[in-house]
Protein backbone atom coordinates (compact mmCIF):
# COMPACT_ATOMS: atom_id res chain seq x y z
CA UNK A 1 0.00 0.00 0.00
CA UNK A 2 1.14 3.51 -0.74
CA UNK A 3 0.16 5.56 2.30
CA UNK A 4 -1.96 8.62 1.57
CA UNK A 5 0.62 11.11 2.74
CA UNK A 6 0.75 14.33 0.79
CA UNK A 7 3.00 17.36 0.50
CA UNK A 8 1.92 20.84 1.49
CA UNK A 9 -1.25 21.97 -0.19
CA UNK A 10 0.61 24.54 -2.21
CA UNK A 11 -0.81 24.16 -5.66
CA UNK A 12 0.07 27.58 -6.90
CA UNK A 13 1.83 29.36 -9.70
CA UNK A 14 5.31 30.14 -8.42
CA UNK A 15 5.99 33.80 -7.56
CA UNK A 16 7.21 35.54 -10.72
CA UNK A 17 9.71 37.74 -8.91
CA UNK A 18 11.58 38.02 -5.65
CA UNK A 19 9.59 40.86 -4.18
CA UNK A 20 9.64 40.07 -0.48
CA UNK A 21 12.28 40.79 2.12
CA UNK A 22 14.52 38.11 3.60
CA UNK A 23 12.53 38.30 6.81
CA UNK A 24 9.29 37.48 5.02
CA UNK A 25 10.82 34.53 3.17
CA UNK A 26 12.04 33.12 6.48
CA UNK A 27 8.58 33.58 8.01
CA UNK A 28 6.92 31.88 5.08
CA UNK A 29 9.31 28.91 5.17
CA UNK A 30 8.67 28.31 8.85
CA UNK A 31 4.95 28.68 8.36
CA UNK A 32 4.53 26.20 5.52
CA UNK A 33 7.18 23.55 5.96
CA UNK A 34 5.75 20.14 6.84
CA UNK A 35 2.22 21.56 7.12
CA UNK A 36 -0.26 18.91 5.93
CA UNK A 37 -3.46 19.89 4.15
CA UNK A 38 -6.56 20.09 6.29
CA UNK A 39 -8.05 16.92 4.84
CA UNK A 40 -4.88 14.83 5.29
CA UNK A 41 -6.06 11.25 5.79
CA UNK A 42 -3.51 10.59 8.52
CA UNK A 43 -4.92 13.38 10.71
CA UNK A 44 -6.92 12.19 13.73
CA UNK A 45 -10.31 11.11 12.44
CA UNK A 46 -13.51 12.14 14.22
CA UNK A 47 -15.24 9.59 16.41
CA UNK A 48 -17.34 7.27 14.21
CA UNK A 49 -21.09 7.74 14.43
CA UNK A 50 -23.08 4.47 14.45
CA UNK A 51 -24.76 3.97 11.10
CA UNK A 52 -22.86 6.83 9.45
CA UNK A 53 -20.85 6.45 6.25
CA UNK A 54 -17.67 8.01 4.86
CA UNK A 55 -16.80 8.98 1.30
CA UNK A 56 -13.36 7.95 0.00
CA UNK A 57 -11.43 8.51 -3.21
CA UNK A 58 -9.19 5.57 -4.05
CA UNK A 59 -6.79 4.57 -6.79
CA UNK A 60 -5.24 1.20 -7.27
CA UNK A 61 -3.42 -0.61 -10.07
CA UNK A 62 -4.68 -4.00 -11.25
CA UNK A 63 -3.56 -6.44 -13.92
CA UNK A 64 -5.18 -5.87 -17.29
CA UNK A 65 -6.79 -9.27 -17.51
CA UNK A 66 -10.33 -10.70 -17.21
CA UNK A 67 -11.62 -11.00 -13.66
CA UNK A 68 -9.23 -8.47 -12.03
CA UNK A 69 -11.86 -5.78 -11.56
CA UNK A 70 -14.47 -8.34 -10.49
CA UNK A 71 -12.19 -9.62 -7.73
CA UNK A 72 -11.64 -6.08 -6.51
CA UNK A 73 -15.37 -5.30 -6.45
CA UNK A 74 -16.08 -8.52 -4.58
CA UNK A 75 -13.48 -7.66 -1.93
CA UNK A 76 -14.99 -4.20 -1.42
CA UNK A 77 -18.49 -5.66 -1.19
CA UNK A 78 -17.23 -7.98 1.53
CA UNK A 79 -16.39 -4.88 3.61
CA UNK A 80 -19.84 -3.36 2.88
CA UNK A 81 -18.23 -0.71 0.68
CA UNK A 82 -20.45 0.79 -2.02
CA UNK A 83 -18.85 1.82 -5.34
CA UNK A 84 -20.40 5.14 -6.41
CA UNK A 85 -18.28 5.74 -9.50
CA UNK A 86 -15.38 4.16 -11.36
CA UNK A 87 -12.91 5.50 -13.91
CA UNK A 88 -10.24 3.44 -15.62
CA UNK A 89 -6.84 4.77 -16.72
CA UNK A 90 -5.14 2.24 -19.05
CA UNK A 91 -1.36 1.90 -18.73
CA UNK A 92 1.17 -0.11 -20.68
CA UNK A 93 1.49 -2.73 -17.92
CA UNK A 94 -1.89 -2.64 -16.20
CA UNK A 95 -4.86 -0.42 -15.43
CA UNK A 96 -5.28 2.27 -12.78
CA UNK A 97 -8.81 2.13 -11.41
CA UNK A 98 -10.11 5.26 -9.68
CA UNK A 99 -13.08 4.78 -7.35
CA UNK A 100 -15.43 6.97 -5.37
CA UNK A 101 -16.50 4.83 -2.44
CA UNK A 102 -19.06 5.02 0.36
CA UNK A 103 -17.89 2.94 3.31
CA UNK A 104 -19.21 2.33 6.83
CA UNK A 105 -18.06 5.12 9.13
CA UNK A 106 -16.21 2.71 11.41
CA UNK A 107 -14.15 1.20 8.54
CA UNK A 108 -10.73 2.95 8.38
CA UNK A 109 -8.73 3.61 5.24
CA UNK A 110 -6.31 0.85 6.20
CA UNK A 111 -9.17 -1.65 6.23
CA UNK A 112 -10.19 -0.73 2.69
CA UNK A 113 -6.57 -0.84 1.52
CA UNK A 114 -6.06 -4.29 3.04
CA UNK A 115 -9.10 -5.65 1.23
CA UNK A 116 -7.87 -4.16 -2.06
CA UNK A 117 -4.38 -5.58 -1.61
CA UNK A 118 -5.81 -9.03 -0.89
CA UNK A 119 -7.78 -8.82 -4.15
CA UNK A 120 -4.62 -8.07 -6.16
CA UNK A 121 -4.55 -4.25 -6.15
CA UNK A 122 -1.14 -2.58 -5.92
CA UNK A 123 0.13 0.98 -5.40
CA UNK A 124 -3.10 1.81 -3.60
CA UNK A 125 -3.78 5.44 -2.68
CA UNK A 126 -6.80 6.57 -0.67
CA UNK A 127 -8.05 9.83 0.83
CA UNK A 128 -11.24 11.32 2.20
CA UNK A 129 -13.72 12.65 -0.36
CA UNK A 130 -16.63 15.04 0.01
CA UNK A 131 -19.93 15.82 -1.66
CA UNK A 132 -18.20 17.72 -4.49
CA UNK A 133 -16.68 14.44 -5.66
CA UNK A 134 -20.16 13.06 -6.34
CA UNK A 135 -20.27 15.06 -9.58
CA UNK A 136 -19.39 12.70 -12.42
CA UNK A 137 -16.10 13.28 -14.23
CA UNK A 138 -17.47 14.44 -17.64
CA UNK A 139 -19.73 17.01 -15.97
CA UNK A 140 -16.88 18.30 -13.80
CA UNK A 141 -14.48 18.61 -16.76
CA UNK A 142 -17.09 20.44 -18.83
CA UNK A 143 -17.67 22.85 -15.96
CA UNK A 144 -13.94 23.55 -15.67
CA UNK A 145 -13.74 24.12 -19.43
CA UNK A 146 -16.61 26.62 -19.25
CA UNK A 147 -14.93 28.56 -16.43
CA UNK A 148 -11.64 28.63 -18.34
CA UNK A 149 -13.41 29.83 -21.48
CA UNK A 150 -14.90 32.81 -19.63
CA UNK A 151 -11.77 33.93 -17.79
CA UNK A 152 -8.08 33.30 -18.56
CA UNK A 153 -7.26 33.61 -14.84
CA UNK A 154 -9.23 30.41 -14.21
CA UNK A 155 -6.69 28.12 -15.93
CA UNK A 156 -4.45 27.50 -12.87
CA UNK A 157 -7.52 26.94 -10.67
CA UNK A 158 -9.09 24.61 -13.22
CA UNK A 159 -5.89 22.55 -13.42
CA UNK A 160 -5.81 22.30 -9.66
CA UNK A 161 -9.41 21.10 -9.44
CA UNK A 162 -8.79 18.67 -12.26
CA UNK A 163 -5.58 17.16 -10.86
CA UNK A 164 -5.91 17.59 -7.08
CA UNK A 165 -3.19 18.82 -4.75
CA UNK A 166 -0.23 19.82 -6.84
CA UNK A 167 2.27 22.58 -7.49
CA UNK A 168 1.79 24.68 -10.64
CA UNK A 169 4.60 26.83 -11.97
CA UNK A 170 4.42 29.16 -14.96
CA UNK A 171 7.68 29.97 -16.74
CA UNK A 172 7.44 32.82 -19.26
CA UNK A 173 8.72 32.52 -22.79
CA UNK A 174 12.34 33.61 -23.35
CA UNK A 175 12.89 36.99 -24.94
CA UNK A 176 14.12 37.33 -28.50
CA UNK A 177 12.49 34.20 -29.88
CA UNK A 178 14.81 31.78 -28.08
CA UNK A 179 13.78 28.12 -27.77
CA UNK A 180 11.27 27.10 -25.12
CA UNK A 181 13.14 26.32 -21.86
CA UNK A 182 13.75 22.65 -21.23
CA UNK A 183 12.99 21.61 -24.78
CA UNK A 184 9.31 20.87 -24.08
CA UNK A 185 7.66 19.55 -27.26
CA UNK A 186 4.53 21.21 -28.61
CA UNK A 187 2.37 18.33 -27.37
CA UNK A 188 3.83 18.56 -23.86
CA UNK A 189 5.58 15.92 -21.79
CA UNK A 190 4.55 13.45 -19.07
CA UNK A 191 7.17 12.12 -16.68
CA UNK A 192 5.64 10.27 -13.73
CA UNK A 193 4.68 12.91 -11.18
CA UNK A 194 5.50 15.88 -13.47
CA UNK A 195 3.49 17.33 -16.37
CA UNK A 196 5.01 19.96 -18.65
CA UNK A 197 2.78 21.80 -21.10
CA UNK A 198 3.39 24.60 -23.59
CA UNK A 199 1.75 27.75 -22.23
CA UNK A 200 -0.41 29.78 -24.64
CA UNK A 201 2.06 32.70 -24.37
CA UNK A 202 4.98 30.47 -25.43
CA UNK A 203 6.37 29.58 -22.01
CA UNK A 204 5.95 26.40 -19.99
CA UNK A 205 3.38 25.34 -17.39
CA UNK A 206 4.82 22.71 -15.03
CA UNK A 207 2.53 20.67 -12.77
CA UNK A 208 4.01 18.48 -10.04
CA UNK A 209 2.17 16.01 -7.81
CA UNK A 210 4.81 14.01 -5.93
CA UNK A 211 2.40 11.85 -3.95
CA UNK A 212 0.62 10.33 -6.98
CA UNK A 213 1.89 9.78 -10.56
CA UNK A 214 -0.16 11.28 -13.36
CA UNK A 215 -1.90 8.96 -15.79
CA UNK A 216 -2.01 9.47 -19.58
CA UNK A 217 -5.73 10.25 -19.22
CA UNK A 218 -5.02 13.09 -16.77
CA UNK A 219 -2.28 14.38 -19.05
CA UNK A 220 -4.69 14.45 -21.99
CA UNK A 221 -7.33 16.32 -19.96
CA UNK A 222 -4.83 18.91 -18.73
CA UNK A 223 -3.47 19.41 -22.24
CA UNK A 224 -7.02 19.89 -23.58
CA UNK A 225 -7.68 22.66 -21.02
CA UNK A 226 -4.45 24.45 -21.94
CA UNK A 227 -5.21 24.12 -25.66
CA UNK A 228 -8.67 25.60 -25.06
CA UNK A 229 -7.08 28.52 -23.26
CA UNK A 230 -4.63 29.07 -26.12
CA UNK A 231 -7.35 29.02 -28.80
CA UNK A 232 -9.48 31.61 -27.01
CA UNK A 233 -6.62 34.06 -26.47
CA UNK A 234 -6.44 36.85 -23.84
CA UNK A 235 -9.77 37.49 -22.12
CA UNK A 236 -11.26 38.78 -18.91
CA UNK A 237 -14.94 39.26 -17.97
CA UNK A 238 -16.14 42.52 -19.50
CA UNK A 239 -18.45 43.62 -16.69
CA UNK A 240 -17.72 46.77 -14.73
CA UNK A 241 -19.33 48.51 -11.76
CA UNK A 242 -19.72 52.27 -11.43
CA UNK A 243 -19.57 53.38 -7.79
CA UNK A 244 -20.05 56.72 -6.10
CA UNK A 245 -17.61 57.50 -3.30
CA UNK A 246 -18.77 59.20 -0.10
CA UNK A 247 -17.45 62.53 -1.39
CA UNK A 248 -19.52 62.22 -4.56
CA UNK A 249 -16.88 61.21 -7.15
CA UNK A 250 -17.72 58.32 -9.48
CA UNK A 251 -15.23 55.50 -10.08
CA UNK A 252 -15.38 52.36 -12.18
CA UNK A 253 -14.11 48.99 -10.94
CA UNK A 254 -13.30 46.39 -13.60
CA UNK A 255 -11.07 43.44 -14.31
CA UNK A 256 -7.65 44.17 -15.82
CA UNK A 257 -4.88 42.23 -17.53
CA UNK A 258 -1.65 42.84 -19.44
CA UNK A 259 -3.49 45.04 -21.93
CA UNK A 260 -3.62 47.62 -19.11
CA UNK A 261 0.17 47.74 -18.81
CA UNK A 262 0.59 51.30 -20.12
CA UNK A 263 -2.16 52.86 -17.93
CA UNK A 264 -0.66 51.04 -14.93
CA UNK A 265 2.79 52.42 -15.69
CA UNK A 266 1.34 55.92 -16.00
CA UNK A 267 -0.23 55.50 -12.56
CA UNK A 268 3.18 54.49 -11.16
CA UNK A 269 4.65 57.72 -12.49
CA UNK A 270 2.04 59.69 -10.55
CA UNK A 271 2.68 57.76 -7.31
CA UNK A 272 5.10 59.02 -4.68
CA UNK A 273 8.23 57.06 -3.79
CA UNK A 274 6.68 56.25 -0.40
CA UNK A 275 3.58 54.71 -2.01
CA UNK A 276 5.70 52.57 -4.33
CA UNK A 277 7.95 51.41 -1.46
CA UNK A 278 4.98 50.42 0.68
CA UNK A 279 3.56 48.36 -2.19
CA UNK A 280 6.67 46.69 -3.65
CA UNK A 281 8.97 46.43 -0.60
CA UNK A 282 12.06 47.41 -2.58
CA UNK A 283 13.69 50.05 -4.80
CA UNK A 284 11.01 52.21 -6.40
CA UNK A 285 12.83 52.04 -9.72
CA UNK A 286 12.01 48.32 -9.95
CA UNK A 287 8.24 48.76 -9.62
CA UNK A 288 7.49 48.74 -13.36
CA UNK A 289 9.35 45.43 -13.76
CA UNK A 290 6.66 43.68 -11.73
CA UNK A 291 3.62 44.92 -13.60
CA UNK A 292 3.65 42.51 -16.53
CA UNK A 293 3.66 39.56 -14.11
CA UNK A 294 1.12 41.05 -11.74
CA UNK A 295 -1.32 41.80 -14.56
CA UNK A 296 -0.96 38.33 -16.09
CA UNK A 297 -3.97 36.05 -15.48
CA UNK A 298 -1.49 33.17 -15.05
CA UNK A 299 -0.70 34.45 -11.57
CA UNK A 300 -4.11 35.62 -10.40
CA UNK A 301 -6.76 38.25 -10.94
CA UNK A 302 -6.43 42.02 -11.07
CA UNK A 303 -9.01 44.74 -10.48
CA UNK A 304 -8.49 48.26 -11.80
CA UNK A 305 -10.10 51.46 -10.56
CA UNK A 306 -10.51 54.20 -13.12
CA UNK A 307 -11.97 57.68 -13.04
CA UNK A 308 -14.74 59.06 -15.22
CA UNK A 309 -12.04 60.26 -17.62
CA UNK A 310 -10.61 56.72 -17.95
CA UNK A 311 -7.43 57.26 -15.87
CA UNK A 312 -6.39 54.20 -13.81
CA UNK A 313 -5.88 55.33 -10.20
CA UNK A 314 -5.73 52.01 -8.34
CA UNK A 315 -4.92 48.32 -8.78
CA UNK A 316 -5.84 45.36 -6.61
CA UNK A 317 -4.23 41.95 -7.10
CA UNK A 318 -5.40 38.51 -6.01
CA UNK A 319 -2.31 36.31 -6.49
CA UNK A 320 -2.78 32.54 -6.44
CA UNK A 321 -0.94 30.97 -3.53
CA UNK A 322 -2.84 27.84 -2.61
CA UNK A 323 -5.27 28.30 0.26
CA UNK A 324 -3.44 31.41 1.46
CA UNK A 325 -3.90 33.63 -1.55
CA UNK A 326 -2.13 36.99 -1.42
CA UNK A 327 -3.94 40.30 -1.76
CA UNK A 328 -2.07 43.46 -2.72
CA UNK A 329 -3.20 47.03 -3.36
CA UNK A 330 -1.80 50.25 -4.75
CA UNK A 331 -3.77 53.49 -4.97
CA UNK A 332 -2.17 56.66 -6.30
CA UNK A 333 -1.62 59.36 -3.69
CA UNK A 334 -4.35 61.77 -4.79
CA UNK A 335 -6.99 59.03 -4.35
CA UNK A 336 -5.85 57.58 -1.04
CA UNK A 337 -8.04 57.71 2.10
CA UNK A 338 -11.17 58.07 0.00
CA UNK A 339 -12.41 54.47 0.30
CA UNK A 340 -10.86 53.19 -2.94
CA UNK A 341 -8.50 50.69 -1.29
CA UNK A 342 -11.20 49.35 1.04
CA UNK A 343 -13.56 48.81 -1.91
CA UNK A 344 -10.85 46.96 -3.85
CA UNK A 345 -10.00 44.76 -0.88
CA UNK A 346 -13.63 43.79 -0.24
CA UNK A 347 -14.02 42.74 -3.86
CA UNK A 348 -10.76 40.78 -3.87
CA UNK A 349 -11.90 38.87 -0.78
CA UNK A 350 -15.22 38.06 -2.46
CA UNK A 351 -13.29 36.72 -5.47
CA UNK A 352 -11.09 34.62 -3.17
CA UNK A 353 -14.18 33.10 -1.56
CA UNK A 354 -15.60 32.34 -4.99
CA UNK A 355 -12.32 30.61 -5.92
CA UNK A 356 -12.50 28.42 -2.81
CA UNK A 357 -9.57 29.98 -0.93
CA UNK A 358 -9.38 29.38 2.82
CA UNK A 359 -7.59 32.62 3.65
CA UNK A 360 -5.94 35.70 2.18
CA UNK A 361 -2.82 37.48 3.37
CA UNK A 362 -1.27 40.87 2.77
CA UNK A 363 2.45 41.63 2.99
CA UNK A 364 3.18 45.21 3.97
CA UNK A 365 4.96 47.33 6.56
CA UNK A 366 3.79 48.26 10.04
CA UNK A 367 3.81 51.90 8.95
CA UNK A 368 1.24 51.24 6.21
CA UNK A 369 -1.74 52.28 8.31
CA UNK A 370 -4.04 52.40 5.29
CA UNK A 371 -3.58 48.69 4.49
CA UNK A 372 -3.86 47.72 8.15
CA UNK A 373 -7.12 49.66 8.46
CA UNK A 374 -8.50 48.10 5.26
CA UNK A 375 -7.76 44.57 6.52
CA UNK A 376 -9.40 45.36 9.86
CA UNK A 377 -12.39 46.76 8.02
CA UNK A 378 -13.12 43.32 6.55
CA UNK A 379 -14.47 42.23 9.93
CA UNK A 380 -12.70 38.86 9.67
CA UNK A 381 -10.44 36.99 12.11
CA UNK A 382 -6.90 38.29 11.54
CA UNK A 383 -3.45 36.91 12.34
CA UNK A 384 -0.42 39.21 12.50
CA UNK A 385 3.23 38.32 11.99
CA UNK A 386 5.90 41.02 12.33
CA UNK A 387 9.60 40.48 11.63
CA UNK A 388 12.19 43.17 10.98
CA UNK A 389 9.66 45.71 9.76
CA UNK A 390 7.72 43.29 7.51
CA UNK A 391 4.07 42.84 8.52
CA UNK A 392 2.03 39.89 7.25
CA UNK A 393 -1.70 40.04 7.97
CA UNK A 394 -3.71 36.89 7.29
CA UNK A 395 -7.51 36.96 7.14
CA UNK A 396 -9.26 33.63 7.61
CA UNK A 397 -12.22 33.11 5.31
CA UNK A 398 -15.15 31.02 6.48
CA UNK A 399 -18.84 30.42 6.09
CA UNK A 400 -19.68 33.95 7.22
CA UNK A 401 -17.55 35.36 4.39
CA UNK A 402 -19.12 33.03 1.84
CA UNK A 403 -22.57 34.20 2.91
CA UNK A 404 -21.51 37.85 2.46
CA UNK A 405 -19.67 37.33 -0.85
CA UNK A 406 -22.78 38.11 -2.88
CA UNK A 407 -23.28 41.34 -0.96
CA UNK A 408 -19.79 42.54 -1.82
CA UNK A 409 -20.41 42.46 -5.54
CA UNK A 410 -18.03 41.52 -8.34
CA UNK A 411 -16.33 43.55 -11.01
CA UNK A 412 -17.12 40.77 -13.44
CA UNK A 413 -20.86 41.20 -12.99
CA UNK A 414 -22.78 42.62 -15.92
Structure description:
This protein has 414 residues and is of the alpha+beta class. The protein contains twelve helices and 16 strands. The strands form three sheets. An eight-stranded mixed beta sheet has the order 9-10-11-12-13-14-16-15, with helices on both faces. Strands 2-3-1-4 form a four-stranded antiparallel beta sheet, covered by helices on one side. Strands 5-8-7-6 form a four-stranded antiparallel beta sheet, covered by helices on one side. Helix 4 runs antiparallel to helix 5 and helix 7 runs antiparallel to helix 9 (287-294). It is elongated, with a radius of gyration of 24 Å. Mean pLDDT is 80; it is low at 1-46 and 400-414.
**Rg computed from alpha carbons, rounded to a whole number of angstroms:** 24 Å
pLDDT below 50 for ≥5 consecutive residues: which ranges?
Answer: 1-46, 400-414
Beta strand count:
16
Average per-residue pLDDT, rounded, comes to: 80
* SS strand fraction: 25-35%
If helices are DSSP runs of H or I spanning 4 or more residues, what is the number of helices? 12
| Shape by Cα distribution | elongated
Helix content: 25-40%
The major pleated sheet works out as:
8 strands, mixed
The string of secondary-structure elements, in order, is: HEHEEHEHHEEEEHEEHHHEEEHEHEEH
Gap between N and C termini, in Å?
51 Å
